[in-house]
Write a structure and sequence with these properties.
- It is a single chain.
- With 386 residues, this protein is an all-alpha fold.
- The protein has one domain: Hypothetical protein af1432, CATH 1.10.3210.
- Helix content is 65%, strand content 0%.
- Helix 10 runs antiparallel to helix 11.
- The longest helix has 26 residues.
């Protein structure tokens, strides 16, 4: 019997995680570090907003396609690294086939054990026109996330050569999506619209470091962690062959599972466990703050869904097609990888070493790790050269 190839595997996870080492706008002054992993997380949340706006207007959205094409665009971006946009678009205009072949070959080289069906779809994506509504949403979300970043760095770069040209190019790109009929663009173009304010609120998770009390590399953020968990859950769902409704619920629960931290900041596990009553108290505070801070920014018909995804992301709720155990396992796996990679990079501490052991124990012996074949992934990471 041949080797079973899975989409959720160590090489794929490291390929995505390594985007935390890709620093954006690194030829500009920056008051906050901006990484590709964070950009992709922000982009995924903006794409969810645009998709929900379409549904609210009575239009259908193929959510599994939107999720997968977002992931394909993420994979493509990692392979091309940090080419400046004008250079990238010029190359793609003249050498699209060659560049896409390079992207595919590089992905195959770095992630050799992906399932054949995934590779076939990725290859087809690279050569297709990708002119569906879902692809329009992915592209629009890309430019809106870029605009958010540019707004952060604009003031400190007012004297930088070409900065006004860059500003106009970004605004022109955002404006171009007003003409293709995406309902949500009317909201997200406006910097004072409640949905734009929600995008800005979520963006604060780009400032919140994971493992804030210990040296670590790369210094991933809460928002970057969320897209990493969501991507892992999606890859696991592909391996298990679940249907589209569960793919949606699992992925977006992973993406929003740490949204409450923008309201409360991180309450570390030892503090949560210091009292039997504390987890319930913290949960009640999060619920109250969600109602106060998030609810006014979100259309009423989305609220129940977002509450469940962000306030109860790991629960197996009767009647809801969602695997809370797998989402929790992917959350633990992401934390293990964050600790392990830093240790391998040579940035270690007692906190990281003890956490790596404890998280590994949970994944291997705690039961939930079996749902994502965590034991094999951990072994493969420890056998990988990084």
């Amino acid at each position: 019997m041949g080797l079973e190839l899975k989409n959720l595997n160590a090489a794929m996870l490291y390929y995505l995680f390594d985007s935390a080492n890709m620093h954006r706008w690194n030829d500009h002054f920056r008051t906050v570090d901006l990484t590709e992993l964070d950009k992709q997380a922000h982009k995924a949340i903006i794409a969810w907003i645009l998709g929900k706006c379409e549904e609210s207007a009575g239009h259908s959205i193929d959510w599994p396609k939107l999720i997968e094409h977002s992931l394909f665009a993420f994979i493509q971006r990692i392979a091309i690294t940090d080419l400046k946009p004008p250079v990238y678009y010029r190359i793609m205009k003249n050498k699209k086939a060659e560049v896409n072949q390079y992207v595919y070959n590089e992905f195959r080289r770095l992630v050799p054990n992906m399932a054949p069906d995934f590779l076939d779809r990725f290859k087809a994506y690279l050569s297709a026109e990708n002119d569906s509504k879902e692809d329009d949403i992915v592209r629009a979300a890309h430019y809106l996330a870029t605009r958010y970043e540019f707004d952060l760095i604009y003031d400190v770069n007012r004297n930088s050569y070409g900065i006004e040209n860059t500003r106009r190019e970004i605004e022109d790109q955002v404006e171009s999506f007003m003409d293709i009929g995406l309902v949500g663009m009317e909201h997200l173009k406006d910097r004072n619209d409640p949905l734009t304010l929600f995008v800005n609120l979520v963006g604060q998770l780009r400032c919140q470091q994971r493992w804030a009390r210990t040296p670590r590399e790369p210094k991933t953020t809460v928002l970057g962690h969320c897209i990493f968990v969501a991507s892992a859950v999606y890859l696991n769902d592909l391996d298990r062959g679940v249907d589209g409704t569960q793919i949606y619920n699992d992925y977006y629960s992973g993406l929003f599972h740490d949204l409450p931290e923008v309201l409360t900041k991180d309450v570390i596990t030892p503090v949560k466990n210091s009292s039997d009553d504390l987890p319930e108290l913290i949960g009640n505070i999060e619920t109250d703050m969600f109602s106060e801070k998030v609810q006014p920014l979100i259309p009423a018909e989305w609220l129940d869904e977002l509450r469940i995804m962000s306030l109860r992301p790991f629960e197996n709720i009767k009647g809801l097609q969602r695997d809370g155990d797998s989402i929790k396992a992917c959350d633990h796996l992401a934390a293990w990888i964050e600790a392990y990679v830093s240790i391998q990079y040579g940035i270690s501490s007692k906190i990281l070493r003890e956490a790596k052991v404890a998280l590994g124990e949970k994944l291997i012996n705690g039961g939930k790790g079996e749902r994502i074949d965590a034991a094999k992934i951990l072994v493969d990471f420890e056998n990988m050269e990084i």
